[in-house]
Amino acid sequence: MATAFTPRVLSGIQPSGGLTLGNYLGALKRFVEMQDAGTHECLYCLVDLHAITVWQDPQALRRNTREAAAAFMAAGIDPARSILFNQSQVPEHAQLAWVFNCVARMGWMGRMTQWKDKAGKNSENASLGLFAYPALMAADILIYHATHVPVGEDQKQHLELTRDIAAKFNHDYKVDFFPITEPVIEGPATRVMSLRDGTKKMSKSDPSDMSRINLSDDPDTIAQKFRKARTDPEPLPETYAELKDRPEARNLVDIYAALAGISTDEVMAQHAGAGWGQFKPALADVAVETMGPITAEMNRLMGDPAEIDRIVGDGARRASDIAAPILAKTYDIVGMISSR
Ligand code: AQP
Fold first, then answer.
1. Which of 76, 84, 296, 314 has its CB surrounded by the most CB atoms within 10 Å?
2. Residue of the nearest CA to atom 12 in ligand 1?
């Protein structure tokens, strides 16, 4: 009989810069919804070990990690109901990742589009950690036997790899130990695009700050970034389907819908025929209304970094309580002798 796993959610965000509107709509907002649904035990982490797969200034990494934890709480993650922690404070992630490095195949890793995008033509010079990134991500998830992972569209391929690693481990060792985790990719903004290029995703490490809305941006900056966002000269059409070949326009409509909590059809019904001079300020207003309170709360929490450290430290201890027996059992399955 197949093992019944506890319904459990795990997801994370890299503190590789300040969080963006893409991280908020594609991930953070969904994390809060899953917490509030109360159907799953939820674990959320700042994946600092993933962040260092590309160069991070140590001071900036520390600040970004605390700021990301503050953003999670400001967006509605309640550390009493969800377990909020830093990945590096739970050593079982890295320990299980090593086992998975030995399960995953080089060919699987080489096919990952994120690896190809980030390593680019200079792959000889990319870090080994960047290549192994998805095996660490599989460990993040499977060290808790997580059954569900809310992510943006860009992480779908890594989730499939996680399933492949779990299945290969179970098959090789003839066990039914790791769950085959389900990705949860839902909502109107699973792929928020850059404000400068509608074919590229909004990213916190894009060299252009104008390409993204940061959770730390003030209302004037948000308005300015939307005003300068690249668009075509046409006004908004009657239907969403007519935006098919207009990626920049479609992106702004998607963002509006996600922020306002309405469907894209409703956005079209309200704004059909509007020019950008009308629509962009309306979009900025919705963004400021939604993000303003989150930014304010994030800034307030950042006033007491020791309290942030205390909260995530407590989360790490609770996470470790779940992870330690799963790692011990994994080692036992693999054939390691336990210490006495
Ligand atoms: N543009 C986006 N639209 C929707 N969802 C997004 N996510 C990221 N960008 C978008 C989702 O946010 C979660 C955390 O992602 P991450 O920080 O771990 O890594 P990433 O996907 O590589 O995000 P960035 O901002 O592009 O980071 P950098 O620039 O450091 O690589 C994931 O669930 C992701 O899907």
1. 84
2. 23
Q: State which of 9, 10, 11, 14 you would mutate to test the pocket of ligand 1, scoring each by most atoms of that ligand within 8 A of its C-beta.
A: 14
Are residues 51 and 133 both part of a single domain?
Answer: yes
The domain that holds 97 is classified in CATH as: 3.40.50.620
Reported as a single tens digit per residue, the pLDDT across 217-268 is: 999 999 999 999 999 999 999 999 999 999 999 999 999 999 999 999 999 9
Distance of CA 217 to the CA centre of its chain: 19
Per the domain annotation, does 292 fall within a domain? yes
Statement to judge: residues 140 and 254 lie in one domain: no
Structure tokens at 176: 């039914």
* Dihedral, CA of residue 57, residue 63, residue 65 and residue 66, to nearest 10: 170
**Which protein residues touch ligand 1 with a CB less than 6 Å away?**
13-14, 16-17, 20, 22-23, 26-27, 151-152, 154-155, 190-192, 201-205
**pLDDT, tens only, 5-38:** 999 999 999 999 999 999 999 999 999 999 999 9
Residue 339 lies in a domain: no
Q: Give me ligand 1 centre to Cα 152, in Å.
A: 7
